[in-house]
Amino acid sequence: MNQTQSNRRRPGQISPTDFFSSDSEKTKLNWFLFEYASGIQPKIGRPLRKGLERKGVKENDIAEFCIYCAKQIEQPIFDKLSGEAADMVLSYHPIEAFFPFLRNKLVDNLLIVAGKAWEGLIEMCAQCPTRCISEKEEKASMFDDPFYYE
């Protein structure tokens, strides 16, 4: 990441830089995780945001949660691909780990949002030629595209 890219980042914004720390980590799997995190954030609607805000959760916290949540699905993806798991399972455990002070209703609502974001991403992936999961270790050139840093 160059200085210009870091200066443009707005509070609460999820960036591709959240998913790599070196060039070797600019993989298609990490791009997939970035896309997932970016899909969760806008699905957190106004009523849920207000409930989170009442618990002291700010926009930056929401962005950090989306990043954390996305990174937590890496192992379930591998389990599904290897045949260890029959289905992809999203759990409330990462939500409770990140926000241990939230009540069950807010946790449930965040899990629903994460599920909807997952379904939306899989739907989009069905039409995408990039093959982020089947070519998960390949370099993702999108990480080097300035468009994603504006």
Structure characterization notes:
The two termini are 12 Å apart. The protein has 7 helices and no strands. It is mainly alpha-helical. Helix 2 packs across helix 4 and helix 2 (28-40) crosses helix 7 (104-125). The chain has helices at 3-8, 28-40, 46-54, 59-72, 74-82, 93-98, 104-125. 25% of the residues are buried. The chain has one domain (24-135). Helices cover 53% and strands 0% of the residues. The radius of gyration is 16 Å and the shape is globular.
Descriptive key words:
mainly alpha, 150 residues, globular, 53% helix, 7 helices
Helix residue percentage: 40-55%
Q: What is the helix tally?
A: 7
Write down the secondary-structure element order.
Answer: HHHHHHH
Number of domains: 1
Q: What overall geometry do the principal axes of the alpha carbons give?
A: globular
Which range does the strand content fall in? under 5%
Compute the gyration radius: what is it? 16 Å
SS class? mainly alpha
Sheet of most strands = none
Low-confidence stretches: 1-8
Taking the alpha carbons of the first and last residues, their distance comes to 12 Å
Assembly level: single chain
Helix-strand blueprint:
Blueprint: H1 3-8, H2 28-40, H3 46-54, H4 59-72, H5 74-82, H6 93-98, H7 104-125
Helix pairs in contact: 2-4, 2-7
Quick overview of this protein structure:
The protein is mainly α. It has one domain. The protein has helices at residues 3-8, 28-40, 46-54, 59-72, 74-82, 93-98, 104-125.
